[in-house]
Design brief:
Two copies of one chain form a homodimer. Chain A is α/β, with parallel strands linked by helices and 242 residues long. Chain A has two domains: 110 residues, Winged helix-like DNA-binding domain superfamily/Winged helix DNA-binding domain (Arc Repressor Mutant, subunit A); 114 residues, Rossmann fold. The first copy, chain A, is built from nine helices and eleven strands. The first copy, chain A, has a seven-stranded mixed beta sheet. In chain A, strands 1-2 form a two-stranded antiparallel ribbon. Chains A, B: Keywords: Cytoplasm, DNA-binding, NAD, Repressor, Transcription, Transcription regulation. Chains A, B: Homodimer. Chains A, B: Belongs to the transcriptional regulatory Rex family.
Amino acid sequence: MLCINGVRQRRLFTPEGCFSPRYDHLSEPESAKDVPAQIPQPAVGRLSLYFRELYRLREAEITTTNSKELGKLVNVSPPVVRRDLSALGTIGQRGVGYSVDALIDRIGQVLGSGQQWEVVLVGVGSLGDALLRYRGFSRLGFKLTAAFDIDPGRIGSTIGGVEVLDAKELERVLTATPPHLAILAVPADNAAEVASLLVRLGVSGILNFAPTTLRLPPRIAVVNVDLASELQRLAFAVQSGT
Amino acid sequence: MLCINGVRQRRLFTPEGCFSPRYDHLSEPESAKDVPAQIPQPAVGRLSLYFRELYRLREAEITTTNSKELGKLVNVSPPVVRRDLSALGTIGQRGVGYSVDALIDRIGQVLGSGQQWEVVLVGVGSLGDALLRYRGFSRLGFKLTAAFDIDPGRIGSTIGGVEVLDAKELERVLTATPPHLAILAVPADNAAEVASLLVRLGVSGILNFAPTTLRLPPRIAVVNVDLASELQRLAFAVQSGT
């Protein structure tokens, strides 16, 4: 059972089950008979963090690192770092540490950042605009190839190097050049309809910023980012701590 | 141990420990001797979702709901919904269900949305701009009271009803009117410095969009949203499923 932000995908799961500080759909642990992915779910997020920091080290022309340094950069203890990296088959050298390049390659491969992912964006409001301009995506191999909106004021403009197309063109464009992933930044009321269309056109994963729960076939991966809920979680943490 | 996106806050914890699909800092369970918060960490995120959907029901002038309907709206099973709501002390009525208003009040109270939270934003790039315009915050009781940037092109403009001030004014303004929370949307390289300043000026919680790990005192709550990492998690999910 893969839980991405609590949306259960009936494809794979870990012996640890699937826990989330946000959503806990599974109250009972799953059996381990069907575990294609060797990486425990909690480690996936940490890999993302290591990758981010390793990239930064490389840009600073640093060629080797160790579990202590990496751990400090991502706020994870060195034993956990070492365990995560050895699960990838990466073997550091005693006294030397890890090769930054080798780690970037290996983690990138595992996370899928080794390949080029084509991503479309639907919804070019201020948030969609920001996502088109966001420079963090391309370094991880994510290429925003098209953007769609219904607003005539947006259609035809170029933002972050991507031309905004009329939403009416969605079917034609996606049929011609099917993307891997889609980012949904439309209002909540339109999200379900757009998501269904994207799935019908072959998209296998959706990053959803619309503040609504998408109900899609289990084979579709969904990651939800609800900005107001994030702030609410923060408020709860602050309130609970006082 | 409160884990918000894996940043461990040494203040409170649940007997379940703290699990995250992203970061798992705790490999060993904590003892239960110190649990001021009665709500298990995984339930907090679900409460956010219920709240969001209940608000929508209220806007549609629907006055009662039940665990089946709520569960469907947020993709959670009815028994879990009932368990979450009874943990709040909310008692539904057999055959009738729950009062939407009563639930909104009670959950809002628990999540801190009953009160008005004053929030400042630092960093008004395209993402900060989008956050200022985001309309989901105010309905949950979050009021963006000030925004700061260093760009003369931004300073003095009004976005989403909030005036953008010179970042040099941060200390003066925050000392005069201390906010509860801050949203950080500055480049990664500036994040640590700005975060330290905010903490020094009395901010207790930071919603961090900068793609870097903030190292702050344990009493400061931090929720991290790293947009590229979210897309990376999605890619991993899609890749693992095929």
